[in-house]
């Protein structure tokens, strides 16, 4: 009795092997064989005579799950199904006798059902005859052959197929979406010595081939002839046509040794076909090419030319894509040199140069010069810039460097800058979905025009910036300074004039802006100045300082800014108290006013452009009479601001103000106050560092 536990053979782990052993002179007999493998069972008997060098066997396999066989565990092709067999044989190595049958049931390739198939072998004299028939739903596969079981076993085996579905192979080697059915029909012959596979000759003729990938229908034009002989795959005729596609190819590939290549191809195709290789790629447009490949896959030698006309390419992870791509690329040795290439991106024109090379992997060195290119990143922010960039490296490590000059900058009213800064402070999550971008290092110098204007829903500013962006695309860091020369900031319906300001980035590991800013506003009869200093996020946060002319306490200044009046000017005064009202009502009115301001300002801006509306539901007039007050502000030609303030209950209390900005340092203000008195002020601003 022989029993082996936890046996491994040909890379397959077997649970147990057992057999009865009987020795009869020179003959060794194994009976009651049992071999178990993940539910599969092999049973039968085997005998070998050492003197006659002959054997005989009778083996049966059942419940073989193909998904559990390690030899069929392919990286891109998932094989499932059941198999069973019954094989008998006898004779010697020089004169074998083989009979049997193999059953393949419910075969599934890449989760697509194929069907079942039976292959039979029967020995007649010195020859074994092979016969296999499929039981597929919509296809036919027939295997016929005859092998002479003497010498090197010369023979001929033919595979004849019709309407054979190869969608699983497309999914295995391409990542594109299959939008239709694929089928192939033809004949493949294998002839030669079966004992020496390297000397076999394989010839094939494909009479029909069609596929539908990414809504592109491809089919063969004429028969496809190929063959394998002397270790080389040769394609004599290969011609595919389809939507904007016409590709012809011929050549050979040495399958052994250094895999020598000799391939010639020409034609035209639509770039949308490349989406089959990468689902994150969006491309379309015609490409005409002539490409010859020699050498070996590790160091291919290329020659030829690729021409693009009005093509487009974009990636889902990048904010900008390329459109209207025109130019030519030349293949030379192991690289693709850009001869001339222009494209449009973000409304601007881009000129691209450099090369891409394949040296044990993809390597590239690209340069790009863009004029008036608009970038919408992060979402809600739009900027227009001129750029000179250089992108070098490989898929595993790359560097994007260059100079960017910003011409215009704007923000969507719904952009939350504070939330964006908070997100940049979070610990980044290491992503493996796109390592190409994760391994992209940055070295960008960003400057602006001398008087860059920035307009948002809350501010209108002008200034300049000088920043360096370092780190990686997954976690960038910013160093440098933003200088704000002048501007207006609107908060709670009040217009603040920025007297001086700068934003400094000094943390080399993240984006941490430090603000140093002073802004002034005229509220009631007070000139109020507010200072903002400190970090926007993290650390100690922002600190605020307050001062006014005439002087007020900080609490009165805050009340004046929040409610439009000081604490002593509330709903009651020292000379005329009102016990029926309190600060809670004042706070409620302020909240109501903010809600009204946001709603009406949005509507007015949509109707009239740059108008701003502020509603104060509880304002104390000159006679200490509570009333509602409305402030309407309209900007004219960017340098004239008209302000109209009126009480809804007392028409006499109306204020009209007109401000004319001669330049960024001098302005003239004309005011007609609630008493009907007309006055003029000349404001001269000087900034000292």
Q: If you had to describe this structure to a student in words, what would you say it looks like?
A:
- With 689 residues, the protein is mainly beta.
- Helices cover 8% and strands 63% of the residues.
- The protein contains five helices and 41 strands.
- It has a 35-stranded mixed sheet that branches.
- A hairpin with a 2-residue loop joins strand 8 (112-124) and strand 9.
- The longest helix has 26 residues, at 583-608.
- The radius of gyration is 41 Å and the shape is elongated.
- The model is unreliable at 427-433, 570-596 and 618-624 (pLDDT under 50).
Summarize the structure.
The chain is mainly β.
List keywords for this structure.
6-stranded antiparallel sheet, 5 helices, elongated, mainly beta, 35-stranded mixed sheet, single chain, 689 residues
């Amino acid at each position: 009795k022989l029993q082996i536990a936890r046996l491994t053979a040909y890379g397959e782990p077997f649970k147990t092997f057992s057999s009865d052993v009987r020795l009869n002179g020179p003959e060794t007999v194994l009976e009651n064989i049992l071999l178990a493998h993940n539910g599969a069972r092999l049973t039968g008997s085997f005998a070998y005579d050492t003197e006659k060098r002959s054997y005989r066997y009778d083996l049966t396999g059942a419940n073989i799950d193909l998904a559990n066989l390690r030899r069929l565990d392919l990286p891109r092709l998932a094989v499932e199904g059941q198999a069973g067999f019954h094989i008998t044989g006898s004779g010697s190595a020089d004169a074998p006798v083989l009979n049997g049958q193999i059953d393949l049931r419910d075969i599934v390739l890449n989760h697509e059902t194929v069907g079942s198939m039976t292959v039979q072998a029967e020995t007649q004299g010195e020859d074994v005859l092979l016969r296999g028939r499929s039981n597929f739903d919509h296809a036919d596969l027939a295997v016929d052959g005859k092998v002479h079981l003497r010498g090197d076993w010369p023979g001929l085996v033919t595979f004849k197929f019709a309407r054979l579905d190869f969608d699983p192979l497309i999914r295995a080697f391409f990542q594109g979406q299959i939008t239709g059915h694929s089928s192939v029909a033809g004949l493949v012959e294998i002839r030669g010595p079966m004992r020496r596979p390297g000397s076999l000759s394989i010839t094939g003729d494909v009479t029909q081939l069609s596929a539908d990938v990414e809504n592109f229908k491809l089919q063969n034009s004429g028969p496809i002839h190929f063959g394998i002989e002397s270790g080389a795959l040769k394609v004599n005729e290969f011609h595919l046509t389809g939507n904007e596609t016409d590709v012809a190819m011929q050549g050979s590939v040495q399958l052994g040794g250094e895999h020598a290549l000799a391939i010639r191809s020409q034609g035209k195709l639509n770039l949308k076909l490349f989406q089959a290789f990468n689902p994150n790629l969006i491309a379309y447009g015609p490409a005409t090419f002539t490409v010859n490949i020699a050498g070996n896959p590790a160091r291919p030698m290329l020659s030829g030319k690729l021409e693009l006309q009005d093509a487009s390419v974009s990636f889902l992870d990048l904010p900008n894509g390329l459109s209207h791509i025109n130019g030519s690329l030349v293949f030379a040795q192991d690289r693709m040199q850009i001869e001339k290439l222009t494209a449009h991106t973000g409304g601007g024109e881009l000129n691209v140069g450099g090369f891409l090379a394949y040296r044990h992997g993809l390597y590239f060195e690209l340069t790009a010069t863009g004029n008036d290119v608009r970038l919408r990143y992060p979402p809600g922010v739009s900027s227009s810039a001129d750029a000179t960039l250089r992108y070098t490296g490989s898929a595993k490590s790359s560097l994007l460097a260059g100079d960017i000059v910003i011409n215009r900058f704007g923000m969507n009213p719904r952009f939350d800058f504070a939330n964006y800064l908070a997100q940049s402070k979070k610990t980044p999550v290491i992503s493996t979905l796109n390592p190409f971008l994760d391994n992209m290092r940055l070295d960008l110098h960003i400057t602006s025009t001398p008087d860059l204007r920035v307009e948002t829903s809350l501010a209108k500013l002008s200034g300049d910036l000088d920043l360096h962006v370092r780190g990686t695309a997954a976690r960038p860091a910013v160093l440098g300074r933003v200088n704000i020369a002048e501007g207006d900031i609107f908060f709670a319906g009040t217009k603040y004039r920025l007297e001086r300001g700068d934003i400094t980035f000094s943390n080399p590991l993240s984006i941490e802006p430090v603000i140093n800013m002073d802004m002034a506003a005229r509220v009631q009869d007070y000139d109020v100045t507010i200072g903002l200093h400190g970090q926007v996020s993290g650390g100690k946060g922002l600190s605020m300082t307050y001062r006014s002319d005439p002087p007020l306490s900080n609490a009165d200044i805050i009340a004046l800014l929040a409610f439009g009046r000081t604490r002593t000017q509330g709903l009651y005064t020292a000379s005329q108290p009102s016990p029926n009202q309190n600060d809670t009502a004042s706070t409620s009115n302020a909240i109501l006013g903010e809600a009204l301001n946001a709603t009406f300002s949005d509507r007015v801006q949509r109707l009239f452009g740059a108008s701003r509306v502020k509603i104060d539901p509880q304002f104390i007039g000159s006679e200490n009479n509570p009333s509602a007050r409305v402030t309407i502000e309209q900007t004219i030609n960017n340098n004239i601001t008209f302000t109209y303030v009126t009480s809804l209950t007392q028409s006499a209390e109306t204020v009209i103000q007109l401000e004319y900005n001669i330049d960024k340092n001098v302005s003239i203000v004309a005011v007609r106050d609630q008493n009907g008195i007309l006055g003029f002020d000349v404001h001269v601003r000087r900034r000292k560092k």
